[in-house]
Amino acid sequence: MKPWLPLRWRLVAPILTALAGVTAPAHAQDSSLARLIHRTRLENGLDVITVENDAVPLATVLVAVRNGAFTQDSADQGMAHLYEHLLFRSFGNGPDAFAIEVTRLNGAYNGATSQEVVYYHLTVPSRNVEKGIKLIARLVREAHFSNGDLKRERPIVLDELQRDESDPEQQLERHVDRMLWGASWCRKDVGGDSVSLAGMTLDRLKQTYARYYLPNNAALIVTGDVSSERVFAQAAEAFRDWRPGPDPFVDHPIPPVAPRAASTVVIVAHDVRDVTIRVALQGPGVGRDTAATYAADALFDVLDDPASAFQQRLVEQGPFQSVTGYYLTQDHTGPIEIVGKTTPERAQEALNELLDEVESVDALEGVTEEDLTIAKRRRAVSMALTLEQTSLLAPDLAGWWASAGLEYYLGYQHRMAAQTVEDLRRFARGYIVGRPRVIGVLAPPETTDQLAAWLRQIGGTAPR
Question: What is the tens place of the pLDDT at every residue in 344-354?
């Protein structure tokens, strides 16, 4: 079972511009997509979304819940992830009961937790879609785990965490993220740690279910060789006894993310061959600065293009083997990260050049309106490819639904096409240039010693 996913949702968003049943500007719709994507809302508040594609006689059935790290306080780090594991175990009369039922449908299943969504899904032959919907409905409606389930599942989750933490790259990413979010780390930490997981009680897990696992806080997403009308009818029947409840975010609102006050450096020494440099900043959130989220996507679409001036300076003619940047779309402050790979011999040069690029990115040196046009064409190609992979499409739709809401994406393609160089510059000045950042470096011990000394010499932020 996947512990959690560092979801990258930008590439999937354009498909949502044509959701059937919703009025959107004509320029934001695509008639071919409108024939594939449909949605409705059941009386109990459950959103039902379908994507029709009969190329392969398979279908994916997924239930998404607006839960995840963002609902955790400091005592609950890892709660949503642990609950995801326990829900499968709680099904039926034994820990393998759900797996047995899925096998009878000739299917496969999994679940995942991220910062702002938890989902459970299974893939079955299309002839078994109705049975799959009934099965996933029973899973989320009939949770009844025990202290014994908690005792048996907790070590499995801890083993997953330990495996990830044994990876030097994961260590660096976690250290950087912890520093980036500061007091809000508990609401970004999907996995938790041994201390927080040891403190989980059955009562707290039941509170999570009662508060967040409600049809009016969930969505059923079905993709593949299906009929939307039949899925809607089947969903209404399978979920009719799932009763709605109070909006969990009214009585338990999510506090604002604590802004980072100053820059800092995190250096991890490890026996690695290459050097990894991470530069992380707090970006916009859909709920607070919607316009900036489009500009963030557009900027990194341009910078990540291998032919861009940015890549030419840093990779083709510079000290890096690779450099990739991204913004992760979230409702509650998404991260901005730029990650580069270089050699120990060129680590200092690479770090210096990357920081110079970051601090002057608002100049958009070498970026033209033509670059934005090329990025638009690439998004269209990516959209078409994504639609063909319907088993991967359902989890991506779950992320969009939870973090931004489908209405946000109805105009996504049009808004992205309308981005200008000035929009990108405004975003860069508001969220990157001169903003507090966390600089992370993973390198061999002798290289980290040299970099730490250099940073102190130039008056940089003291490494931690």
Answer: 999 999 999 99
